[in-house]
TrEMBL record:
Organism, as annotated: Prolemur simus (Greater bamboo lemur)
E.C. number: 1.14.14.1
Enzyme class: oxidoreductase
Protein name: unspecific monooxygenase
PANTHER family assigned: CYTOCHROME P450 2C9, CYTOCHROME P450 508A4-RELATED
Signal peptide residue numbers: 1-25
Required co-factors: heme
Length: 392
């Protein structure tokens, strides 16, 4: 048979399959722009600013609409009110795990999504451990205070001369996460620390690139263009191998009555679950969870700090009021603590305004519904290829 005829037949079959899937599932989903076969609505999305594209769609289709990222539908919830309604009033139904193929490939299906979105035992354990500030004799607050003092000392070394603080602002949260996970912080010039920072920074840039949006919606491309991901996967492997090495060192000196950090807490939980063959608490899960905390916690905090400084420079009148409140409540001779928060409403409001203005993750992480749910007069089904995207 003529290859051209075969190609036409294959494309026709794909088109028919796409139209059938669209007609069978589309009626249950909210309205949205009409998708093209195979590529869906990708041509109508600005991959460099998907949030802006969603804002434009919401003007035409309302705060709840459907877009097709490739052949797969995504229900978008756009705006504060609808996101609040979904995540607060229907939090359990919208707590499912979304798919991020590149991250799933890095973590072998474990990690960030299970830790941050789902209702897994590891997620609950991680949140409980961090919320309790329960890692040995030193709380998370004390670790933050220590790193803040070190950050101030690094800034003082500039002697008030013009400088780019981006690197220092990245080191501080990364070091704080290291302190929580590995017990000890690093000197800002430590070679191991700088290597970890470099690997992490490169991976964040790769994952934030517009092309990554395409790869995540057409995951088959990962197998056809493996060279594109070599750097990403190799850097992740380097960081995880370092975490595994530290975990083994911790295991040799573990004191179950005196956990020093997150790794110790996880190892203790592993020991408690050792007779449970179905336990989620394994060395692999420990490495992936620590890897996610290391990556996600560093970049988000450093970016927020950088934007906060830029906004304070732009609005000196706000800076003056924040400084006045700090001097009045805290003074110049001690570190701030969580108890000060209730006495500093203006500073607290400024911090929240920075986070709102920054819009750090415009579309949030993909969610999925845990069951069929009727939401704002639309039936959102629990199907494996549909995900929920939250947009500000």
């Amino acid at each position: 048979m003529d290859p051209a005829v075969v190609l036409v037949l294959c494309l026709s079959c794909l088109l028919l399959l796409f139209l059938w899937r669209q007609s069978s599932g589309r009626g249950k989903l909210p309205p949205g722009p009409t998708p093209l076969p195979i590529i869906g609505n990708m041509l109508r999305l600005n991959v460099k600013d998907i949030g802006k594209s969603f804002t434009n769609f919401s003007k035409a289709y309302g705060p709840v609409f459907t877009v097709y990222l490739g052949m797969k539908p995504a229900v978008v919830l756009h705006g504060y009110e609808v996101v609040k309604e979904a995540m607060i009033d229907h939090g359990e139904e919208f707590s499912g795990r979304g798919h991020f193929p590149v991250i799933d490939r890095i973590n072998n299906g474990l990690g960030r999504w299970a830790c941050l979105l789902g209702q897994s035992l590891i997620r609950r354990f991680t949140l409980m451990t961090l919320r309790n500030f329960g890692m040995g004799k030193r709380s998370v607050e004390e670790r933050v205070q220590e790193e803040a003092r070190c950050l101030v000392e690094e800034l003082r070394k500039t002697e008030a001369s013009p400088c780019d603080p981006t690197f220092i602002l990245s080191c501080a949260p990364c070091n704080m996460i290291c302190s929580i996970i590995f017990q000890n912080r690093f000197d800002y010039n430590d070679n191991h620390f700088l290597k970890l920072m470099e690997k992490l920074h490169v991976n964040v840039n790769i994952l934030s690139s517009p092309w990554m949006q395409i790869y995540n919606n057409f995951p088959a491309l990962i197998d056809y263009f493996p060279a594109t991901f070599n750097t990403l996967f190799n850097n992740a492997a380097f960081i995880k191998s370092y975490i595994l090495e530290k975990a083994k060192e911790h295991q040799e000196s573990l004191d179950v009555n005196n956990p020093r950090d997150f790794i110790d807490c996880f190892l203790i939980k592993m020991e408690q679950e050792k007779n449970n063959q179905l336990s989620e608490f394994t060395f692999e899960a420990l490495v992936v969870t620590a890897f996610d905390l290391f990556g996600a916690g560093t970049e988000t905090i450093s970016t927020t700090l950088k934007y906060a400084l830029l906004l304070l420079l732009k609005h000196p009148e706000v800076t003056a009021k924040v400084q006045e409140e700090i001097d009045c409540v805290i003074g110049r001779h001690r570190s701030p603590c969580m108890q000060d928060k209730s006495h500093m409403p203006y500073t607290d409001a400024v911090i929240h305004e920075v986070q709102r203005y920054l819009d750090l993750v415009p579309t949030d992480l993909p969610h999925a519904v845990t069951r069929d749910i009727k939401f704002r007069n639309y039936l959102i089904p629990k199907i494996s290829d549909a995900k929920i995207m939250l947009a500000s």
